[in-house]
Amino acid sequence: MHDHGRPSGGDRNLVLAVFINVLLTVAQVIGGILSGSLSLIADALHNLSDAAAIGIALVARRIGRRPADSKFTFGYQRAEVVGALINLTTLIIVGLYLIYEALSRFADQQPIAGWTVIWVAGIALVIDIATAVLTYRMSAGSLNIRAAFLHNVSDALASIAVIVVGVLVLIFEWYWTDLVATALIAGYVLYQGLSMMRETVRLAMEGVPPDIKLGEVRSALAAIRGIMDVHHLHVWQLDEHRRALEVHLITQAEGVEGIALKTQVRQMLAKQFRIEHSCLELESPDELATVHDCRPAN
User: Fold this and answer.
1) Which of these, 79, 72, 21, lies nearest to 200 by C-alpha position?
2) CA–CA separation, 73 and 220 (whole Å)
């Protein structure tokens, strides 16, 4: 039984990570405005998206602990998918905006305060590393937390790039490097957002898990003694970790034999395909196949 009122140690780490990332964003925006550095503001927006990602992960963890009820019979774990869609959409919009700003400023490059850029980016680098440490231990068991951890690592790399820009501005007055760094950061933000969007959309649309081939599932079912045919086969993911299956099986088994057959099928699905929730409908050979789909909506 979960205690929804008291945050776990992992939750406290996430709250702390959100807090310091928001503070870092404010500091970077102020530093970017004072120094005239667009790349510093780009890194700030990237950090803000990371704070949002961690915040969404925190809320999803809290909601996901709620038990199944009459409204959500599979539970609330898919809240993480909804949050991820919101976060990734925002991330992509931010990336496109930064590219637009970088291109518009190429024609009118402004002087940049190199030391301000270096100091603010240096502080950001330390905070990015600290945040990555906070989320690292939790990343092994959660794709969403792992994504947040990787975001913080990429933030650290972006901060290094901004520091390099500050050095080049101080030594050579190469102000154009700020715009190049902005474009590179924006490009990486878009790459992350679009690459993660595919997996998130697949989950949202209840797609087949990427490591499962329907043909292999069908063959494994047909190979079980007593099963004459397989049809209306559906496999999808309830959330990041749980999988479900619905299938109609043509068999002469009924009564006790039918129960034993279902048990054998479920054991095979769990062992070979990690499918622990299955809806099996047994049909006799002369029964008219129906289009009934017993998969509950989720």
Assistant:
1) 79
2) 28
Domains and CATH numbers, the chain: 9-204 (1.20.1510.10), 214-283 (3.30.70.1350)
Sorting pLDDT into bands at 50, 70 and 90, what band is 208?
very high
Given a contact cutoff of 8 angstroms between Cβ atoms, the answer to whether 41 and 29 are in contact is yes
pLDDT score, position 148? 67
Contact 59, 82 (CB under 8 A): no
C-alpha to C-alpha distance for 181 and 164, rounded to whole angstroms: 9
Which pTM does this prediction carry? 0.68
Structure tokens at 238: 């309830």
Rg over CA atoms, the chain = 25
Residue type, 173: E
Confidence class for position 244, pLDDT limits 50, 70, 90:
very high
Q: Name the helix (H) or strand (E) containing 282.
A: strand 277-283
